[in-house]
Amino acid sequence: MNTLVAALPILVLIWMMVKRSPIASYIALPITALLAALLQLFYFQADLRLLLANSFAGVLSVMTPISIIAGAILLNRMLAISGAETTIKHWLESISSNQVAQLMIIGWAFAFMLEGASGFGTPAAIAAPILVGLGFSPFKVIVFTLILNSIPVSFGAVGTPTWFGFSALQLDDEQVLAISRWTALCHVVAALVIPMIALCIVQPLKTVRKNSVFIYLSVFSCVLPYWLFAQWNYEFPSLIGGAVGLLLTIFLANKGVGLDNSAVNIQSMKGKVELTPKALFLALFPLLLLIVVLVITRIHQLGIKALLNDETLWMSMHLGFAQFELSKALILSLHEIFGTSVGWSYKTLFVPALIPFVLVVLICVPLLKMSKLQVKQMCTDTLGRIALPCIALIGALVMVNVLMQGGHNAPIFYMASTFANVSGEHWVLFASYLGALGTFFSGSATVSNLTFGGIQYGIAEQVGLSETLVLALQSTGAAMGNMICISNIIAVASIVGVNNQEGPVLKKSFLPMLIYGAIVGGFSYLFY
Predict the structure, then answer these.
(1) pLDDT tens, position by position, 272-312
(2) Which helix (H) or strand (E) holds 279?
(3) 494: helix, coil or strand?
(4) Rounded to a whole number, what is the largest CA-CA distance in the chain?
(5) What is the Cα Rg of the chain in Å?
(6) pLDDT tens-digit readout, 259-280
(7) How many CA atoms lie within 13 Å of 12's alpha carbon, on the beta-carbon side?
(8) d(CA 210, CA 455)
Protein backbone atom coordinates (compact mmCIF):
# COMPACT_ATOMS: atom_id res chain seq x y z
CA MET A 1 0.00 0.00 0.00
CA ASN A 2 2.83 2.39 0.86
CA THR A 3 4.35 1.87 -2.58
CA LEU A 4 1.06 2.60 -4.36
CA VAL A 5 0.52 5.80 -2.39
CA ALA A 6 4.16 6.82 -2.92
CA ALA A 7 3.85 6.29 -6.68
CA LEU A 8 0.49 8.08 -6.92
CA PRO A 9 1.98 11.53 -7.80
CA ILE A 10 4.12 9.98 -10.56
CA LEU A 11 1.18 7.97 -11.92
CA VAL A 12 -1.06 11.04 -11.88
CA LEU A 13 1.64 13.04 -13.65
CA ILE A 14 2.03 10.40 -16.37
CA TRP A 15 -1.75 10.23 -16.82
CA MET A 16 -2.06 14.01 -17.12
CA MET A 17 0.74 14.18 -19.69
CA VAL A 18 -0.30 11.28 -21.96
CA LYS A 19 -4.12 11.28 -21.90
CA ARG A 20 -6.09 12.11 -25.05
CA SER A 21 -6.07 15.83 -24.23
CA PRO A 22 -2.77 16.14 -22.35
CA ILE A 23 -2.23 18.75 -19.68
CA ALA A 24 0.79 20.98 -20.24
CA SER A 25 3.82 20.30 -18.03
CA TYR A 26 3.66 23.81 -16.51
CA ILE A 27 0.25 22.86 -15.09
CA ALA A 28 0.76 19.13 -14.49
CA LEU A 29 4.04 19.39 -12.57
CA PRO A 30 2.88 21.96 -9.96
CA ILE A 31 -0.30 19.90 -9.42
CA THR A 32 1.84 16.80 -8.90
CA ALA A 33 4.09 18.66 -6.46
CA LEU A 34 1.06 19.74 -4.42
CA LEU A 35 -0.28 16.17 -4.39
CA ALA A 36 3.11 14.82 -3.27
CA ALA A 37 3.23 17.37 -0.43
CA LEU A 38 -0.29 16.53 0.76
CA LEU A 39 0.45 12.79 0.74
CA GLN A 40 3.68 13.38 2.68
CA LEU A 41 1.84 15.46 5.25
CA PHE A 42 -1.30 13.38 5.80
CA TYR A 43 -0.29 9.81 4.85
CA PHE A 44 3.45 9.59 5.59
CA GLN A 45 3.14 11.94 8.61
CA ALA A 46 6.00 14.17 7.45
CA ASP A 47 7.24 17.01 9.62
CA LEU A 48 5.45 20.16 8.44
CA ARG A 49 8.38 22.50 9.00
CA LEU A 50 10.76 20.21 7.11
CA LEU A 51 8.19 19.87 4.33
CA LEU A 52 7.91 23.65 4.00
CA ALA A 53 11.70 24.02 4.03
CA ASN A 54 12.17 21.42 1.28
CA SER A 55 9.41 23.01 -0.80
CA PHE A 56 10.94 26.48 -0.39
CA ALA A 57 14.39 25.16 -1.31
CA GLY A 58 12.84 23.52 -4.39
CA VAL A 59 11.38 26.84 -5.51
CA LEU A 60 14.73 28.62 -5.03
CA SER A 61 16.60 25.82 -6.84
CA VAL A 62 14.84 26.77 -10.07
CA MET A 63 17.28 29.68 -10.35
CA THR A 64 20.01 27.35 -11.62
CA PRO A 65 18.29 25.69 -14.59
CA ILE A 66 16.10 28.67 -15.52
CA SER A 67 19.07 31.05 -15.63
CA ILE A 68 20.90 28.61 -17.93
CA ILE A 69 17.81 28.26 -20.14
CA ALA A 70 17.41 32.04 -20.25
CA GLY A 71 21.05 32.50 -21.23
CA ALA A 72 20.82 29.84 -23.95
CA ILE A 73 17.65 31.36 -25.40
CA LEU A 74 19.15 34.87 -25.24
CA LEU A 75 22.10 33.70 -27.33
CA ASN A 76 19.78 31.90 -29.75
CA ARG A 77 17.56 34.98 -30.19
CA MET A 78 20.61 37.18 -30.74
CA LEU A 79 21.79 34.91 -33.56
CA ALA A 80 18.32 34.81 -35.12
CA ILE A 81 17.42 38.51 -34.86
CA SER A 82 20.86 39.80 -35.90
CA GLY A 83 20.84 37.68 -39.06
CA ALA A 84 23.84 35.60 -37.96
CA GLU A 85 21.70 32.46 -37.98
CA THR A 86 20.72 33.07 -41.62
CA THR A 87 24.37 33.53 -42.58
CA ILE A 88 25.30 30.27 -40.84
CA LYS A 89 22.39 28.58 -42.62
CA HIS A 90 23.59 29.71 -46.07
CA TRP A 91 27.13 28.61 -45.24
CA LEU A 92 26.05 25.13 -44.17
CA GLU A 93 23.91 24.76 -47.29
CA SER A 94 26.83 25.68 -49.55
CA ILE A 95 29.34 23.14 -48.22
CA SER A 96 28.11 20.14 -50.21
CA SER A 97 25.29 19.27 -52.61
CA ASN A 98 25.32 15.63 -51.49
CA GLN A 99 22.09 14.96 -49.55
CA VAL A 100 23.68 12.62 -47.01
CA ALA A 101 26.47 15.13 -46.39
CA GLN A 102 23.91 17.88 -45.82
CA LEU A 103 21.97 15.73 -43.39
CA MET A 104 25.08 14.82 -41.41
CA ILE A 105 26.55 18.34 -41.37
CA ILE A 106 23.34 20.10 -40.33
CA GLY A 107 21.24 17.44 -38.60
CA TRP A 108 24.11 15.65 -36.85
CA ALA A 109 27.36 17.62 -36.31
CA PHE A 110 25.96 21.18 -36.21
CA ALA A 111 23.02 20.09 -34.03
CA PHE A 112 25.45 18.16 -31.79
CA MET A 113 27.42 21.34 -31.15
CA LEU A 114 24.26 23.39 -30.56
CA GLU A 115 23.06 20.85 -27.99
CA GLY A 116 26.31 21.23 -26.09
CA ALA A 117 26.03 25.02 -26.13
CA SER A 118 22.36 25.59 -25.42
CA GLY A 119 20.21 22.46 -25.41
CA PHE A 120 16.54 22.77 -24.44
CA GLY A 121 15.21 21.91 -27.92
CA THR A 122 17.40 24.45 -29.75
CA PRO A 123 19.30 21.99 -32.04
CA ALA A 124 16.24 20.43 -33.68
CA ALA A 125 14.51 23.82 -33.84
CA ILE A 126 17.42 25.30 -35.82
CA ALA A 127 18.46 22.28 -37.90
CA ALA A 128 14.96 21.22 -39.02
CA PRO A 129 13.99 24.41 -40.92
CA ILE A 130 17.41 24.50 -42.63
CA LEU A 131 16.92 20.94 -43.90
CA VAL A 132 13.34 21.63 -44.98
CA GLY A 133 14.65 24.68 -46.87
CA LEU A 134 16.98 22.32 -48.73
CA GLY A 135 13.97 20.36 -50.01
CA PHE A 136 13.77 17.44 -47.57
CA SER A 137 10.34 16.19 -46.46
CA PRO A 138 9.20 18.20 -43.39
CA PHE A 139 7.70 15.13 -41.69
CA LYS A 140 10.82 13.03 -42.22
CA VAL A 141 13.05 15.90 -41.10
CA ILE A 142 11.15 16.19 -37.81
CA VAL A 143 11.71 12.50 -37.05
CA PHE A 144 15.33 12.63 -38.23
CA THR A 145 16.33 15.62 -36.09
CA LEU A 146 14.51 14.30 -33.02
CA ILE A 147 16.25 10.92 -33.23
CA LEU A 148 19.71 12.43 -33.67
CA ASN A 149 19.13 14.99 -30.91
CA SER A 150 19.58 12.27 -28.30
CA ILE A 151 23.25 11.23 -28.17
CA PRO A 152 24.59 14.66 -27.06
CA VAL A 153 21.70 15.47 -24.68
CA SER A 154 23.22 14.08 -21.46
CA PHE A 155 25.86 16.81 -21.71
CA GLY A 156 23.65 19.42 -23.34
CA ALA A 157 23.49 23.04 -22.16
CA VAL A 158 26.99 22.75 -20.67
CA GLY A 159 26.21 19.43 -18.96
CA THR A 160 23.14 20.65 -17.05
CA PRO A 161 21.25 17.30 -17.21
CA THR A 162 24.23 15.58 -15.55
CA TRP A 163 25.63 17.97 -12.94
CA PHE A 164 22.34 19.66 -12.03
CA GLY A 165 20.04 16.74 -12.84
CA PHE A 166 21.61 14.66 -10.05
CA SER A 167 22.30 17.57 -7.68
CA ALA A 168 19.60 16.48 -5.22
CA LEU A 169 21.57 13.28 -4.56
CA GLN A 170 24.55 15.29 -3.27
CA LEU A 171 27.10 13.19 -5.13
CA ASP A 172 30.77 14.09 -4.94
CA ASP A 173 32.68 15.20 -8.04
CA GLU A 174 34.28 11.80 -8.63
CA GLN A 175 30.87 10.08 -8.61
CA VAL A 176 29.50 12.56 -11.14
CA LEU A 177 32.58 11.97 -13.31
CA ALA A 178 32.05 8.20 -13.10
CA ILE A 179 28.45 8.71 -14.26
CA SER A 180 29.74 10.96 -17.04
CA ARG A 181 32.23 8.37 -18.29
CA TRP A 182 29.78 5.48 -18.51
CA THR A 183 27.01 7.69 -19.93
CA ALA A 184 29.32 8.82 -22.73
CA LEU A 185 30.40 5.25 -23.47
CA CYS A 186 26.77 4.09 -23.67
CA HIS A 187 26.01 6.88 -26.14
CA VAL A 188 29.06 6.03 -28.23
CA VAL A 189 27.93 2.40 -28.51
CA ALA A 190 24.42 3.53 -29.48
CA ALA A 191 25.92 5.89 -32.07
CA LEU A 192 27.04 2.84 -34.06
CA VAL A 193 23.38 2.22 -34.91
CA ILE A 194 21.13 5.23 -34.21
CA PRO A 195 22.41 7.69 -36.88
CA MET A 196 22.00 5.00 -39.56
CA ILE A 197 18.41 4.38 -38.45
CA ALA A 198 17.70 8.13 -38.54
CA LEU A 199 19.18 8.49 -42.04
CA CYS A 200 17.12 5.58 -43.36
CA ILE A 201 13.98 7.56 -42.46
CA VAL A 202 15.01 10.38 -44.81
CA GLN A 203 17.03 8.51 -47.46
CA PRO A 204 16.67 5.11 -49.15
CA LEU A 205 18.67 2.32 -47.52
CA LYS A 206 20.67 1.91 -50.74
CA THR A 207 21.80 5.56 -50.61
CA VAL A 208 22.70 5.33 -46.93
CA ARG A 209 24.76 2.19 -47.56
CA LYS A 210 26.69 3.83 -50.43
CA ASN A 211 27.61 6.76 -48.18
CA SER A 212 28.26 4.69 -45.06
CA VAL A 213 32.02 5.43 -44.94
CA PHE A 214 31.37 9.17 -44.76
CA ILE A 215 28.54 8.65 -42.26
CA TYR A 216 30.66 6.69 -39.81
CA LEU A 217 33.62 9.07 -40.17
CA SER A 218 31.24 11.93 -39.32
CA VAL A 219 29.75 10.01 -36.39
CA PHE A 220 33.14 9.14 -34.91
CA SER A 221 34.46 12.68 -35.45
CA CYS A 222 31.83 13.83 -32.92
CA VAL A 223 31.55 10.94 -30.45
CA LEU A 224 35.25 10.17 -29.97
CA PRO A 225 36.23 13.65 -28.70
CA TYR A 226 32.89 13.64 -26.84
CA TRP A 227 33.87 10.43 -25.03
CA LEU A 228 37.43 11.62 -24.38
CA PHE A 229 36.28 14.88 -22.76
CA ALA A 230 33.76 12.96 -20.62
CA GLN A 231 36.68 11.17 -18.94
CA TRP A 232 37.62 14.31 -17.01
CA ASN A 233 34.79 16.80 -17.47
CA TYR A 234 30.99 16.57 -17.47
CA GLU A 235 30.17 20.07 -18.72
CA PHE A 236 31.29 20.32 -22.33
CA PRO A 237 31.77 16.88 -23.94
CA SER A 238 28.89 17.64 -26.35
CA LEU A 239 30.06 21.17 -27.08
CA ILE A 240 33.66 20.18 -27.85
CA GLY A 241 32.65 16.93 -29.56
CA GLY A 242 30.20 18.82 -31.76
CA ALA A 243 32.68 21.58 -32.60
CA VAL A 244 35.44 19.12 -33.54
CA GLY A 245 32.97 16.89 -35.37
CA LEU A 246 31.49 19.79 -37.34
CA LEU A 247 34.92 20.92 -38.57
CA LEU A 248 35.95 17.39 -39.53
CA THR A 249 32.60 16.58 -41.17
CA ILE A 250 32.81 19.77 -43.24
CA PHE A 251 36.38 18.88 -44.27
CA LEU A 252 35.34 15.35 -45.24
CA ALA A 253 32.33 16.63 -47.21
CA ASN A 254 34.45 19.20 -49.07
CA LYS A 255 36.92 16.48 -50.06
CA GLY A 256 34.12 14.05 -50.91
CA VAL A 257 35.59 11.38 -48.62
CA GLY A 258 33.29 8.35 -48.48
CA LEU A 259 30.52 10.10 -50.43
CA ASP A 260 28.60 8.73 -53.40
CA ASN A 261 28.19 11.44 -56.05
CA SER A 262 24.77 10.20 -57.14
CA ALA A 263 23.05 11.53 -53.98
CA VAL A 264 22.98 15.15 -55.18
CA ASN A 265 20.50 17.77 -53.94
CA ILE A 266 19.54 19.77 -57.04
CA GLN A 267 17.59 22.35 -55.04
CA SER A 268 20.59 23.34 -52.90
CA MET A 269 22.74 23.77 -56.02
CA LYS A 270 20.28 26.36 -57.37
CA GLY A 271 20.06 28.44 -54.21
CA LYS A 272 23.70 29.03 -53.29
CA VAL A 273 24.52 32.39 -51.69
CA GLU A 274 28.01 33.89 -51.83
CA LEU A 275 29.37 34.73 -48.38
CA THR A 276 32.36 36.88 -47.53
CA PRO A 277 34.84 35.47 -44.98
CA LYS A 278 34.17 38.49 -42.73
CA ALA A 279 30.40 37.92 -42.70
CA LEU A 280 30.86 34.24 -41.93
CA PHE A 281 33.37 34.93 -39.15
CA LEU A 282 31.08 37.48 -37.48
CA ALA A 283 28.15 35.05 -37.66
CA LEU A 284 30.17 32.22 -36.12
CA PHE A 285 32.03 34.40 -33.60
CA PRO A 286 29.40 34.14 -30.81
CA LEU A 287 29.58 30.33 -30.91
CA LEU A 288 33.37 30.33 -31.07
CA LEU A 289 33.59 32.80 -28.18
CA LEU A 290 31.15 30.68 -26.18
CA ILE A 291 33.42 27.64 -26.53
CA VAL A 292 36.54 29.66 -25.60
CA VAL A 293 34.92 31.17 -22.49
CA LEU A 294 33.63 27.79 -21.35
CA VAL A 295 37.02 26.15 -21.75
CA ILE A 296 38.83 28.97 -19.91
CA THR A 297 36.39 28.94 -16.98
CA ARG A 298 36.21 25.15 -16.63
CA ILE A 299 39.88 24.09 -16.78
CA HIS A 300 41.01 23.89 -13.17
CA GLN A 301 44.69 24.52 -13.91
CA LEU A 302 44.01 28.03 -15.25
CA GLY A 303 42.80 29.18 -11.82
CA ILE A 304 39.66 31.00 -13.03
CA LYS A 305 37.41 28.10 -12.01
CA ALA A 306 38.64 28.42 -8.41
CA LEU A 307 37.98 32.17 -8.40
CA LEU A 308 34.42 31.67 -9.65
CA ASN A 309 33.82 29.12 -6.87
CA ASP A 310 35.47 31.06 -4.04
CA GLU A 311 33.36 30.39 -0.94
CA THR A 312 35.22 32.88 1.29
CA LEU A 313 32.53 34.66 3.28
CA TRP A 314 31.94 38.27 2.29
CA MET A 315 28.64 39.04 4.00
CA SER A 316 26.28 37.25 6.40
CA MET A 317 22.93 38.20 7.93
CA HIS A 318 19.96 36.53 9.57
CA LEU A 319 16.70 36.91 7.63
CA GLY A 320 14.40 35.56 10.33
CA PHE A 321 13.60 32.32 8.52
CA ALA A 322 17.19 31.43 7.48
CA GLN A 323 20.81 32.51 7.60
CA PHE A 324 21.86 34.31 4.40
CA GLU A 325 25.48 34.31 3.22
CA LEU A 326 27.24 35.91 0.25
CA SER A 327 30.75 34.80 -0.75
CA LYS A 328 33.47 36.73 -2.57
CA ALA A 329 32.51 34.87 -5.79
CA LEU A 330 28.89 36.05 -5.29
CA ILE A 331 27.68 32.61 -4.21
CA LEU A 332 24.24 33.10 -2.62
CA SER A 333 23.45 30.72 0.26
CA LEU A 334 20.67 30.08 2.73
CA HIS A 335 21.28 27.85 5.76
CA GLU A 336 18.88 26.33 8.30
CA ILE A 337 15.75 27.27 6.38
CA PHE A 338 12.80 27.49 8.82
CA GLY A 339 15.09 26.16 11.54
CA THR A 340 15.79 22.88 9.74
CA SER A 341 18.93 21.36 8.22
CA VAL A 342 17.72 22.26 4.70
CA GLY A 343 19.87 24.72 2.74
CA TRP A 344 20.24 26.22 -0.72
CA SER A 345 22.94 27.93 -2.75
CA TYR A 346 23.43 29.53 -6.18
CA LYS A 347 26.85 30.05 -7.77
CA THR A 348 26.16 33.31 -9.59
CA LEU A 349 29.39 33.43 -11.59
CA PHE A 350 29.98 29.70 -12.12
CA VAL A 351 26.51 28.54 -13.18
CA PRO A 352 26.72 28.82 -17.01
CA ALA A 353 24.30 31.72 -17.32
CA LEU A 354 25.97 35.11 -16.77
CA ILE A 355 29.21 33.45 -17.83
CA PRO A 356 29.29 32.49 -20.68
CA PHE A 357 25.87 33.27 -22.22
CA VAL A 358 25.16 36.82 -21.04
CA LEU A 359 28.84 37.76 -21.33
CA VAL A 360 28.99 36.52 -24.94
CA VAL A 361 25.77 38.36 -25.82
CA LEU A 362 27.05 41.65 -24.32
CA ILE A 363 30.28 41.38 -26.33
CA CYS A 364 28.59 40.35 -29.59
CA VAL A 365 25.61 42.74 -29.72
CA PRO A 366 27.77 45.70 -30.85
CA LEU A 367 29.88 43.49 -33.14
CA LEU A 368 26.73 42.30 -34.92
CA LYS A 369 25.51 45.94 -35.06
CA MET A 370 22.17 45.21 -33.47
CA SER A 371 19.81 48.16 -33.03
CA LYS A 372 18.10 49.07 -29.75
CA LEU A 373 14.84 47.72 -31.17
CA GLN A 374 16.48 44.40 -31.99
CA VAL A 375 18.03 44.16 -28.51
CA LYS A 376 14.63 44.88 -26.98
CA GLN A 377 13.03 42.16 -29.10
CA MET A 378 15.80 39.74 -28.12
CA CYS A 379 15.16 40.34 -24.41
CA THR A 380 11.36 40.26 -24.79
CA ASP A 381 11.47 36.97 -26.69
CA THR A 382 13.72 35.45 -24.02
CA LEU A 383 11.46 36.49 -21.14
CA GLY A 384 8.41 35.19 -23.00
CA ARG A 385 10.01 31.81 -23.60
CA ILE A 386 11.22 31.15 -20.05
CA ALA A 387 7.96 31.92 -18.20
CA LEU A 388 6.25 28.55 -18.67
CA PRO A 389 9.42 26.41 -18.34
CA CYS A 390 10.09 28.23 -15.07
CA ILE A 391 6.72 27.18 -13.66
CA ALA A 392 7.23 23.59 -14.85
CA LEU A 393 10.70 23.41 -13.28
CA ILE A 394 9.43 24.80 -9.97
CA GLY A 395 6.85 22.00 -9.90
CA ALA A 396 9.48 19.38 -10.75
CA LEU A 397 12.02 20.56 -8.18
CA VAL A 398 9.48 20.90 -5.36
CA MET A 399 8.10 17.44 -6.18
CA VAL A 400 11.58 15.88 -6.14
CA ASN A 401 12.51 17.50 -2.82
CA VAL A 402 9.24 16.42 -1.24
CA LEU A 403 9.38 12.83 -2.51
CA MET A 404 12.93 12.41 -1.20
CA GLN A 405 12.08 13.58 2.32
CA GLY A 406 11.89 10.96 5.05
CA GLY A 407 14.91 8.69 4.71
CA HIS A 408 13.72 5.05 4.68
CA ASN A 409 10.14 6.31 4.94
CA ALA A 410 10.51 8.56 1.90
CA PRO A 411 8.08 7.87 -0.98
CA ILE A 412 11.05 7.42 -3.33
CA PHE A 413 12.43 4.68 -1.07
CA TYR A 414 9.17 2.69 -1.28
CA MET A 415 9.09 2.97 -5.09
CA ALA A 416 12.73 1.92 -5.33
CA SER A 417 12.07 -1.10 -3.11
CA THR A 418 9.28 -2.31 -5.39
CA PHE A 419 11.31 -1.93 -8.58
CA ALA A 420 14.26 -3.63 -6.90
CA ASN A 421 12.18 -6.60 -5.75
CA VAL A 422 10.60 -7.11 -9.17
CA SER A 423 13.70 -6.77 -11.35
CA GLY A 424 16.62 -7.61 -9.08
CA GLU A 425 20.02 -7.33 -10.71
CA HIS A 426 18.34 -7.32 -14.14
CA TRP A 427 17.28 -3.70 -13.52
CA VAL A 428 20.25 -2.66 -15.67
CA LEU A 429 18.27 -3.81 -18.72
CA PHE A 430 15.33 -1.50 -17.92
CA ALA A 431 16.85 1.50 -16.13
CA SER A 432 17.21 3.63 -19.27
CA TYR A 433 13.50 3.32 -20.11
CA LEU A 434 12.56 4.95 -16.79
CA GLY A 435 14.79 7.87 -17.77
CA ALA A 436 13.13 8.05 -21.20
CA LEU A 437 9.70 8.05 -19.56
CA GLY A 438 10.74 11.05 -17.48
CA THR A 439 11.76 13.05 -20.55
CA PHE A 440 8.64 11.94 -22.41
CA PHE A 441 6.26 13.49 -19.93
CA SER A 442 8.39 16.41 -18.68
CA GLY A 443 10.04 17.57 -21.90
CA SER A 444 13.47 17.79 -20.29
CA ALA A 445 16.32 15.36 -19.62
CA THR A 446 17.28 17.54 -16.65
CA VAL A 447 13.80 17.21 -15.14
CA SER A 448 13.84 13.46 -15.81
CA ASN A 449 17.10 13.09 -13.88
CA LEU A 450 15.77 15.28 -11.08
CA THR A 451 12.54 13.26 -10.91
CA PHE A 452 13.88 9.71 -11.18
CA GLY A 453 17.50 10.05 -10.03
CA GLY A 454 16.53 9.31 -6.42
CA ILE A 455 14.47 6.28 -7.40
CA GLN A 456 17.29 4.90 -9.55
CA TYR A 457 19.82 5.45 -6.76
CA GLY A 458 17.56 3.67 -4.29
CA ILE A 459 17.08 0.70 -6.61
CA ALA A 460 20.83 0.37 -7.13
CA GLU A 461 21.45 0.43 -3.37
CA GLN A 462 18.84 -2.23 -2.62
CA VAL A 463 19.77 -4.58 -5.46
CA GLY A 464 23.50 -4.21 -4.96
CA LEU A 465 24.24 -2.63 -8.33
CA SER A 466 26.71 0.18 -8.89
CA GLU A 467 24.92 3.46 -8.18
CA THR A 468 26.96 5.28 -10.82
CA LEU A 469 26.09 2.62 -13.43
CA VAL A 470 22.35 2.91 -12.79
CA LEU A 471 22.47 6.72 -12.73
CA ALA A 472 24.44 6.68 -16.01
CA LEU A 473 21.66 4.57 -17.55
CA GLN A 474 19.10 7.03 -16.15
CA SER A 475 21.02 9.87 -17.80
CA THR A 476 21.33 7.95 -21.08
CA GLY A 477 17.64 7.11 -20.99
CA ALA A 478 16.67 10.71 -20.29
CA ALA A 479 18.64 11.69 -23.40
CA MET A 480 17.09 9.04 -25.64
CA GLY A 481 13.66 10.12 -24.37
CA ASN A 482 14.22 13.33 -26.34
CA MET A 483 13.12 11.35 -29.42
CA ILE A 484 9.60 10.85 -28.08
CA CYS A 485 9.19 14.03 -26.03
CA ILE A 486 5.79 15.52 -26.93
CA SER A 487 6.81 19.12 -26.28
CA ASN A 488 9.85 18.77 -28.56
CA ILE A 489 7.73 17.17 -31.29
CA ILE A 490 5.20 20.00 -31.12
CA ALA A 491 7.91 22.67 -31.10
CA VAL A 492 9.78 21.31 -34.15
CA ALA A 493 6.57 20.54 -36.04
CA SER A 494 5.27 24.07 -35.53
CA ILE A 495 8.56 25.59 -36.72
CA VAL A 496 8.52 23.64 -40.01
CA GLY A 497 4.77 24.11 -40.50
CA VAL A 498 3.55 20.54 -39.95
CA ASN A 499 0.26 20.43 -38.03
CA ASN A 500 -1.53 17.61 -36.20
CA GLN A 501 1.18 15.03 -36.91
CA GLU A 502 2.39 14.49 -33.34
CA GLY A 503 0.98 10.94 -33.22
CA PRO A 504 2.61 9.73 -36.47
CA VAL A 505 5.93 11.36 -35.48
CA LEU A 506 5.80 9.66 -32.09
CA LYS A 507 5.12 6.28 -33.72
CA LYS A 508 8.10 6.72 -36.07
CA SER A 509 10.52 7.68 -33.30
CA PHE A 510 9.26 5.19 -30.70
CA LEU A 511 10.97 2.11 -32.21
CA PRO A 512 14.41 3.81 -32.47
CA MET A 513 14.01 4.79 -28.80
CA LEU A 514 13.30 1.15 -27.85
CA ILE A 515 16.33 0.01 -29.87
CA TYR A 516 18.48 2.65 -28.17
CA GLY A 517 17.43 1.39 -24.72
CA ALA A 518 18.06 -2.24 -25.68
CA ILE A 519 21.56 -1.38 -26.92
CA VAL A 520 22.69 0.55 -23.83
CA GLY A 521 20.95 -1.84 -21.42
CA GLY A 522 22.42 -4.94 -23.04
CA PHE A 523 25.87 -3.39 -23.32
CA SER A 524 25.88 -2.35 -19.65
CA TYR A 525 24.56 -5.73 -18.52
CA LEU A 526 27.29 -7.62 -20.38
CA PHE A 527 30.34 -5.41 -19.93
CA TYR A 528 30.07 -3.33 -16.76
Answers:
(1) 667 888 999 999 899 889 878 877 887 777 888 889 989 99
(2) helix 277-298
(3) helix
(4) 73
(5) 23
(6) 987 656 655 555 566 788 899 9
(7) 18
(8) 45
